[in-house]
Amino acid sequence: RAQILTIPGDGAGSSELLNPVFRTYSQPTLAARVVAVMTTIASHPIERFAASKHHVITTAALVLLFWLIAALLVMGVNSALVRVTPGAAAVVKIAAIVSAAFGYMRLTARNATVDHALLVGLVWLLLDVGAEIAVARFALLGTPARPAMRDVLLLAWIIAPALFARSASDAAP
């Protein structure tokens, strides 16, 4: 014999038909809906890509791609703001570097450790130095006239990816 069961906290205040023998609901419970949504999010292609370990060449290409994004943002800020307000330009440059680092760590290396992130930061710094040597007008590390801001940007290139890394204990399954 079927009974009417009211589920408190459902929000709709509706009654659902419950079969007492099999204990099945006519609609999924809130917990079942949450599990279904979380499973869908976890199985999204970007999530799977970010959580997987990549080939060395793929990792190198992604590091280069996100450095290029950050470098273009820094160059754009440099050309637009450095003459107007050098202090604000440095803050916006750091924000651009941190944003690119967040994108790299979130979209491509979600389970990366601090070691990986610091290596990526070091590679980004080496690419900056190489770009500045090749073409002196880039100023990815700031202008030599402001050595303090240059040092801050140098550290930002190295440390930014590590801000979004997991510790070694978090990365272990």
What are the main properties of this structure?
173 residues, mainly alpha, elongated
Count of helical regions: 7
Approximately what portion of the residues adopt beta-strand conformation?
5-15%
Instruction: Give the low-confidence spans.
Output: 12-22
Summarize model confidence as the mean pLDDT.
Answer: 75
Biggest β-sheet, characterized?
Answer: 3 strands, antiparallel
Number of distinct beta strands: 3
Measured as a percent range, the helix fraction is 55-70%
Please state the overall shape, judged from the principal axes of the Cα atoms. elongated
Order of helices and strands: EEEHHHHHHH
Spatial order of the strands forming the largest sheet: 1-2-3
Secondary-structure-based class equals mainly alpha
Quick structural summary:
This protein has helices at 30-42, 45-51, 56-81, 86-107, 114-134, 147-159, 168-171, and strands at 3-6, 15-19, 24-25.
Per-chain topology:
Blueprint (H helix, E strand, L loop, with lengths): L2 E4 L8 E5 L4 E2 L4 H13 L2 H7 L4 H26 L4 H22 L6 H21 L12 H13 L8 H4 L2
Antiparallel strand pairs: 1-2, 2-3
Helix pairs in contact: 3-4, 3-5, 4-6, 5-6
Task: Outline the structure in words.
- The protein has 173 residues and is mostly helical.
- The chain has helices spanning 30-42, 45-51, 56-81, 86-107, 114-134, 147-159, 168-171; strands at 3-6, 15-19, 24-25.
- The radius of gyration is 25 Å and the shape is elongated.
